# Entry
Amino acid sequence: MNEKISNALNWRYATKVFDVDKKVSAEDIKTILESAHLAPSSFGVEAWKFFAIENPEVRKKLREVGYDQAQITDASHLVIITQRTDAQNLATELVERLNKITGASVESLDGLKEMVEGSVKSKTESGTITAWLTAQTYIALGMMLETAALLEVDACPMEGFLNEGVDEVLNLKEKNLRSVSMITLGYRGDDKHAGHLKTRREYDDVIEVI
# Structure
């Protein structure tokens, strides 16, 4: 398993050119999306939502606000990663979810609720709430990238788009959401970047054991 993970991570790269004729199976896409669904988040609040865009017309509109990047329409699948903008509701939703799934009483979860509410309030007052919510989504993005690599599905994480444009196309503002990133999924085509050696810093330069 160690070798499989290492090989997959060395194999993956940010794919720019996709084979438009090759489609990722429904099973593999479900597994990749499930990795986002199961991703960890601070306090377990899951302050995100993921949009799997299948409608070709919507994808064309997203390409228009995505600096005309071909992978938005050429890749087999496109997922938009968004963050919640109504952080004030996260604590109550978390308690309700725990009550429903675990059977724990709402009263027994008062301490957790107060802690989450206090954290949200502190971050809101300090002006760091958006950064905190945004950071959470990159955990899920990383999970999808690794899962895709293990399935030998090519992917490209993307931030290069007009957030306001994507938000408008998907009506995100009225859903209390804001776009953060995209991930395109499929199989590499005639891409000059495919097979390039990794140009990472040396392991010992970035990993220090204390």
